[in-house]
Amino acid sequence: MPTDIWRWEAWQIAEAIARGEISSREAVTSCLQRIDAVNPQINALTHINRESALRAADEADTKRASGEPLGALHGVPVTIKCNVDVTGEPTTHGVLAKRDLIAQTHSPVTSNMLKAGAVIVGRTNTPAFSMRWFTENALHGRTLNPWRSDITPGGSSGGASAAVAAGMCPVAHGNDLAGSVRYPAYACGVTGLRPTAGRVPSWTPSSGELRTFAAQFYAVQGPIARSVHDLRVSLAAMSARDTRDPNWVPAPLEGPAIAGPLRVALVDEIEGMTIAPPIREALQHAARWLEDAGYAVDRATPPDPREGFDIWMDVAMTEISQSFAQTIDEYGDDGAREALHAMLAKYGGEPTLERYMTGLSRRDRLRRRWNAFFEQYPLVLMPTSLDLPFQWGMDREGVAVMARILDAQLPLKLISALNLPGLSVPIGLHEGVPVGVQIVSSAFREDLCLAAGEAIEQRAQMPLAF
After folding, report:
1. pLDDT recorded at residue 216
2. Is 98 a catalytic residue?
3. Under DSSP, is residue 284 helix (H, G, I), strand (E, B) or coil?
4. CA 172, CA 161: separation in Å to the nearest integer?
5. From 23, 30, 81, 234, the catalytic residue
6. Which site among 17, 101, 211, 448 is 20 to 30 Å from 270 CA-CA?
7. Class of domain 5-239
């Protein structure tokens, strides 16, 4: 069998299996061998599904041999983050108290990936309660960035991004409430897509029936991969209908064509904020590459980026302080508690009903203004983060440092607050540290983000971490 299948992209594996050139067992075995080689150092996977993955691979090979129709991810090794449900496995959320919380049924995103033929080879790490941009917890330990061990792999899907970057799987599931797909992809030099809320059905049955507003409309499920094309394939697989999410929308994956040249707003300045020079340079490279690909790029600022950040804080921090902070204090680890209280000290404010309702009203107004902006500029090219990936543990250095971290993540929270699709795509390295950009479009126009991302990716030629 080929010994380097773990290096292949997901679509290549799926097509080779469909043609009978390789078997799913060979693909899964290759990734399991890679996991054995690198996971002890990186600690991206909290659990390795060795026996069940090989059984599933054999079933996939039997299905192919029988001539049955195959899904887009048929036989492809994938990972699932440990904060959604996989039947019969613990949904730990990186929390000691949840180590024995065994899922009784799949989450919708798990079901959809399995229906598309994917083979789950393991579960990926997350900070406790997914509360940090640094992936470590008292239950599973610290996940390292495959590029440099002194910088964060991102969070909360840091295990997913590290696994993809290190070659343990071609595609990983993640989720994103405040950047938890886009930031880990950025930090690990891979691609990550935050879909529009409603695109991919989302629910974690083991967490109960009731979900807050932010859990419904800020939080989404999305893919992390080494190529934009794999994101496209994975999004199609993830987004199948599931009646358990009443907010799911049957929107087409391809929207109506826009007469060219498609206009792109370049955001390399944000009033009152500092964008690190390597990030600005990356944006300028990406802008030139888009122009080379036929896009029309102008410097233009969408409406009130800072207000979008404030809206995220008003809504989410009110919910956290009222319904979640006590849980983190009681069951979280030291890192989660310290990060939470630093955030609350800086941006918690008074958790009043007026603040919450005003935040929701302001959100509606700002979304309307952005919709008008997208009529002129269907795409926005902006930072993923305003700073390079953080040094390990910065969020435990007090309120002042946490304020710097939160401000740097303005572009992440802004896009979550407005429920827009955002694509994180790598540009290259700065002194050995990954650097990338974010591409944003209007609701359910992931197709525009992905097309622009492919144009950048083809020209960037981002190296791999292995």
Report:
1. 96
2. no
3. helix
4. 7
5. 81
6. 448
7. alpha beta
